[in-house]
Amino acid sequence: MDDRSAVYPFVSRGGPAPLTVVRSEGVWLVTEDGRRILDAAGGAIVASIGHGREEVAAVAARALAETTFVVPPFATPQRVALVERLRRHWLPKPLARAVFASGGSEAVDLALRIARQHHVCAGRPERWKIIGRELSYHGATLATLAVGGHRARRRGLEPLLIEHPKAPACDPLRCEHCRGAGGCTLACADAIEEILLREGPETVAAVIAEPIVGSTAGALVPPDGYWPRLREITKRHGVLLVADEVMTGFGRTGREFAVDHFGVVPDLLVGGKGLAAGYAPISGVYASDEVVAPIAERGEEVMFYTYSAHPASCAIADKVLEIMERESLVARAAEMGGYLHERLARLRDHPNVAEVRGRGLLQAIEIVRDRDTLEPFAEAHHVATRTVLAGLGRGVFFYPGGTRPGPDVVCVGPPFTISKPEIDRIVDVLEESLGAAVASIG
């Protein structure tokens, strides 16, 4: 066993040391032995503007020289500038209030607290339940695991999790509601109303969902009418709608936010990874004045995390968004995402690919043993992980996903600066890697 594997990561399984990346530049990762790996995953679907931007590093150095830690309730120029940019160019109206955290799990946890606090301050303390969905992932805190549907990450922690109602996933490929109906009936959205009525609408604080499900289900895109129906149901019952866009926000799907594809504005929107594109740990919760008003009127605050809105992180995020605007990278994500989807289309005929799906530069393939019956590979085969490892051996890094009883998926989410020749290489290697993974299972 390499001595380094006893030092990092936290859980060591023996064997070779983890891959050591010493530098990243553009769409490439460089290892300590000089290998160059094409980052088709954008890290963890994070690195939207590409790696190694010197102007971002310069902003970080300047911000750290000016202000290191400032308690979150105080204003700083960096904090104010970031919120002004978000309101001016990015957030769907009327989402005008912003509060920050360090990562996606923290931010979703914060959104759940705000939803509960909103109702308590408005005189509705009986509203506490959060309706989540199966095949969803909202973070690794106990609260976010409780409302999420990622069974593998909940496993063993159940005694610590408050059980919240779960609605069925919106999975058009496997939808039992619409099978034989000749098309989508939006029954999976109506199922959320059925849960509301069963639980008692007066006990429900919010519904939380990913507009396009990320790696848990593999870029799962709902029918166009799903989110408008969800918005109508929640409004009618006085329930807040929380859109988890930690993975999809800030241009990843070819629009500023994934909800923009569906013409819907939630009450609370969570955005994380793309906010600083991996250059700093920062995420945010964005809300309307209507959501914040009862809290303000009661004279309460929303409790912050220690590193909420760290000045350097805010300065970095502001610079990242400036680059996104200056280089029209949201439009580029839509253009390159369209090309990637077209190139991936050839895998639709692969005997072990059930579906190619996604929007913008969040694309995925679903891997099955039998595409006609949708029979999956045995969980013990770890077919998605095998595919990723085969890709690494060929110099491309993909992002594995899926959770049982959901599908095995491999996601592709490169930086928005990716070129067409690089996309061609990604698709070629993905096809080779899937073939190698299936062959290794036998």
The average pLDDT is 95
Estimated radius of gyration: 22 Å
The N- to C-terminal Cα distance equals 29 Å
Q: Indicate the structural class.
A: alpha/beta
Strand content: 15-25%
Continuous helix count:
14
Low-confidence stretches: none
Quickly name the level 1 CATH class of the largest domain.
Answer: Alpha Beta
CATH architecture call of the largest domain? 3-Layer(aba) Sandwich
Could you explain how this protein is built, in words?
Helix 4 (104-121) crosses helix 10 (289-297) and helix 13 (383-393) packs across helix 14 (420-441). The chain is of the alpha/beta class and 442 residues long. The chain folds into two domains: 3-52 and 328-441, Alpha-Beta Complex (Aspartate Aminotransferase, domain 1); 55-326, 3-Layer(aba) Sandwich (Aspartate Aminotransferase, domain 2), CATH 3.40.640.10. A hairpin with a 2-residue loop joins strand 11 and strand 12. The protein has helices at residues 42-45, 54-66, 77-90, 104-121, 142-147, 151-154, 187-199, 226-236, 273-276, 289-297, 311-326, 329-344, 383-393, 420-441, and strands at residues 21-25, 28-31, 36-39, 95-101, 129-133, 166-167, 204-209, 240-245, 268-271, 283-288, 353-359, 362-367, 396-397, 399-401, 408-412. The strands form three sheets. Strands 4-10-9-8-7-5-6 form a seven-stranded mixed β-sheet, with helices on both faces. The model has no long low-confidence stretch (mean pLDDT 95).
Itemize the secondary structure elements and their pairings.
Elements: E1 21-25, E2 28-31, E3 36-39, H1 42-45, H2 54-66, H3 77-90, E4 95-101, H4 104-121, E5 129-133, H5 142-147, H6 151-154, E6 166-167, H7 187-199, E7 204-209, H8 226-236, E8 240-245, E9 268-271, H9 273-276, E10 283-288, H10 289-297, H11 311-326, H12 329-344, E11 353-359, E12 362-367, H13 383-393, E13 396-397, E14 399-401, E15 408-412, H14 420-441
